[in-house]
Specification:
The protein is an alpha+beta fold. The chain has 7 helices and 5 strands. The structure holds FE2/S2 (inorganic) cluster (FES).
């Protein structure tokens, strides 16, 4: 996954969607696919080339949880915050993860190893609380199990 921003690639991505401002969400998804996050420079370029304001682009980026503006960690730990998981302790599990990793939700550990993110239902409600690490979903995660999973992420 590329991390250094390239204006020519940015234009290429924007042009794939015909430069249509109504396709802003799709454009942003394409940037995330390419870079893993939305560079500040990309926000400027998208606004300029779609002829919309930077505030409009920022508004959409901050509305959707999938659009991050910082480089993601090597591993992404997502803890479900939806109703069924909350009823089974996902809030205290999140507090445990924040303490253990020394980050808040939406942040990445100092070593760049793990990003902690909220997610709203992983389709695993029967086994709540649910956690997703990278692409794998785990059910009935308690603090001890989460510690083991986090240890597995340490490179
Ligand atoms: S509410 Fe958490 S997996 Fe559905």
């Amino acid at each position: 996954m590329a991390t250094k921003y390239d204006n020519a690639i940015g234009s290429e991505i924007i042009n794939q969607f015909g430069g249509k401002p109504e396709l802003l969400v799709q454009v942003l998804h394409a940037f995330v696919k390419r870079y893993g996050f939305i560079h500040k420079e990309a926000i400027r370029q998208i606004a300029d080339e779609l002829n919309i304001s930077r505030a409009d682009v920022h508004g959409v980026v901050s509305f959707y949880h999938d659009f991050r503006t910082t480089k993601p960690g090597r591993h992404i730990v997502k803890i479900c915050q939806a109703e069924a998981c909350q009823a089974m302790g996902s809030r205290s599990l999140t507090a445990h993860a924040e303490k253990r990793l020394e980050v808040a939700l939406h942040e990445t550990t100092e070593d760049g190893g793990i990003s902690l993110e909220p997610v709203f239902c992983l389709g695993n409600c029967a086994c709540s609380p649910a956690v997703m690490i990278d692409e794998k979903v785990y059910g009935r995660v308690d603090p001890d199990k989460l510690d083991v999973l986090i240890d597995m992420c340490r490179d």
